[in-house]
Amino acid sequence: MSDAGQVMDASVAMDAGSTDADAGAPDAGPVTGAGAADSGLPDAGTPDAGSGALDSGVPDAGTPDAGGLPITCTAAGLPGTCLPVGECRDTRQPTAGLCPGPSTIQCCTPRFTNACDPNARPLPNTGLAEAPGTGSCAAGMVSIGTFCIDRYEAFLEETDGGAWCPFVNPGTRRLRARSAIGSVPQGFINQVQAAAACAESGKRLCTDAEWLRACRGPTNSTYPYGNTRLTGVCNDRRSVHPAIELYGTSASWVFSHIDSPCLNQLDGGLARSGSFSGCNSAEDVFDLMGNLHEWTADPAGTFRGGFYVDTVINGNGCLYATTAHDVSHWDYSTGFRCCQ
Fold first, then answer.
1. What are the two backbone dihedrals, phi and then psi, of residue 67, each rounded to the nearest 5 degrees?
2. pTM for the whole thing?
3. 33: which residues sit within 8 A by CB, 6+ positions away?
4. Beta strand pairing status for 147-150 and 105-110?
5. Is 258 within 8 Å of 11 (Cβ atoms)?
6. Are 188 and 148 in contact (CB under 8 A)?
7. What residue ranges do the domains of the chain occupy?
8. What is the helix (H) or strand (E) element at residue 200, kind and residue range?
9. What is the pLDDT of residues 146-202, one digit of tens each?
10. Which residues in 272-287 are b (16+ Cβ under 10 Å) and which e?
11. Which of 118, 153, 231, 266 has the highest Cβ tally under 10 A?
């Protein structure tokens, strides 16, 4: 993983009944609505080698069935079309045994564009320790007036201190929240799970008011570092949506597959906590803007601050807030930190 930049999130869409766009991705594929933005998705696809024809990553037409329609298929959970092997090339890969007809007709689906193994469970936070807290705050926390807040976005560990993979949803497993520089923060987490992890550490999720105070500082600034947006100071400038890069297509179906552990392992995406040394608030709380969305304690469901693709669509910097999901939602972009 490395530092990244800013472009609006291609998965942005409006949830039914909500006026807030989701800069991570919709719950079940994109849902369009008034005010939905799309600046991460290219208007045109990638040209097929040697043809100049647009290639959305999924063939436009495959071997037709008796009614003249392409035969669709699914391989490894991805939608595809039955095609001759020779026509399944470039950003696509064939899978045998899923289509009718001769063995040369196979299910053609987009190929992953990097070497990430979605079944691997790396443990990048092994051995990390929290720094002493300031004032009377617990380890890893900073004192801000009447409350304490984690200096860095939280990562998870087992209750016995064992390491946990930050690229998978924790399910019902009991895990505790930690905050340390250099950690890979936990994405793929919903509000209920985040609150439980904070509680396991004797903490709780921050209220909206606490989170905003920590981000905006005593001068009530728009960004953690001041009132003028500064390019590249925070991790909010990734030019290509990770789902588009991972699956090799800008087709809308990729946003129904935002649970892949590989999404936060692409270069130029999620950064280790504190990597952007200028992205700190007046009290030296880091990454409140960008990197990962952060859940607050709002019972209706709110995450704040934007993430590594976008810190604009739902408000600028500290004012960014997504309310389009309930507390059970999670995707690669949702993280958290704790208060006390």
1. -90, 5
2. 0.74
3. 13, 14, 15, 16
4. unpaired
5. yes
6. no
7. 1-54+126-340, 55-110
8. helix 191-200
9. 999 999 999 999 999 999 999 999 999 999 999 999 999 999 999 999 999 999 999
10. bbbbbeebbbbbebbb
11. 153
